[in-house]
Design goal:
mainly beta, 13-stranded antiparallel beta sheet, 13 strands, disordered N terminus
Length: 288
């Protein structure tokens, strides 16, 4: 009798999955469309990064020494030394594209700062013979926009950034030239961003259909803007290269000024570039 009870129990356990399965129904596409999960993830971040040396070596070497990246305070700005108030949103769109948006917790642009001790060329990678290209680099500014999108239809990585440089100094040591008080900003309201013949400040419709008073328009005019695509492609023109790293610069819009250019420690004057636009520029990068 006890044996029969054990057999009955085992039979019931074995049959349980089939009994449960009898009540299950396949979900059609409409029902599946109503099943949603968390809309991406958010990462909050504050950091300060120091790198003693970054070195690229082929037959010789290129080395960047004493790198510090943080808030504007690391380079003499008014912010702290922390790169903070960062909020990184990561999501997958309906069409499968991966979307990464770097924003802020307080709604203000992210203040950044960096310093670099030197950039050097080293013969044979040993440093027995070397040339210092850049030294004493220090700069800070703001990051207003940084977006990444991996497009599943084209396999392109699109990068859109808006930033400014409030102050940057460095020495081009092998030429004996010093750059002081370099400033990079947006092209401003006197630039025709969309090529319709009207500058932003005179365009009643707003460039790219933007309200000139909107935050998007202010970011476009007030900060240097960069839009580029990175992907695997072919070489340019008559090149037969394939599977190369392609970088297509869709646009770069900015103003730039240099407070002083020094030669031999003496200033020879200042420079300014208004409404700099780099468009339809393509690069193909590959080994030889």
């Amino acid at each position: 009798m006890k044996g029969l009870k054990k057999i009955a129990l085992a039979t019931a356990v074995a049959a349980a999955p089939f009994a449960a399965h009898a009540d299950l129904k396949a979900m059609d596409d409409s029902a599946m469309g109503n099943v949603t999960g968390q809309a991406g993830v958010t990462i909050e971040l504050e950091t300060k990064v120091s790198i003693g040396q970054f070195k690229y070596t082929d037959e010789g070497s290129f080395a960047v020494n004493d790198i510090v990246l943080g808030g504007s305070g690391v380079a003499g700005g008014t912010g702290t030394e922390l790169l903070d108030q960062l909020k990184i949103d990561i999501d997958v769109a309906d069409d499968g594209d991966a979307v990464i948006h770097v924003g802020t917790l307080d709604g203000n642009p992210i203040d950044w700062g960096m310093t670099v001790g030197s950039m050097e060329l080293l013969a044979g990678g040993t440093g027995s013979d070397s040339t210092t290209l850049i030294s004493n680099m220090s700069g800070y500014g703001n990051l207003a926009q940084l977006d990444f999108r991996v497009d599943t239809a084209t396999d392109h990585l699109n990068i859109v950034a808006a930033f400014d440089v409030q102050d940057m100094d460095f020495d081009v040591e092998f030429l004996g030239i010093g750059i002081r008080d370099m400033v990079i900003t947006g092209a401003g309201g006197n630039f025709d961003y969309d090529g319709d013949g009207d500058v932003m400040s005179a365009d009643a419709d707003g460039e790219f259909g933007l309200d000139p008073t909107s935050q998007e328009a202010q970011v476009l005019a007030g900060f240097a803007n960069v839009n580029l695509d990175v992907y695997k492609g072919s070489g340019l023109g008559a090149s037969t290269a394939t599977d190369v790293l392609r970088i297509d610069v869709n646009n770069v819009y900015m103003d730039m000024s240099i407070g002083a250019v020094e030669i031999g420690g003496t200033s020879i004057g200042s420079f300014a570039i208004d409404n700099l636009a780099v468009t339809d520029t393509k690069l193909a990068v590959y080994g030889k």
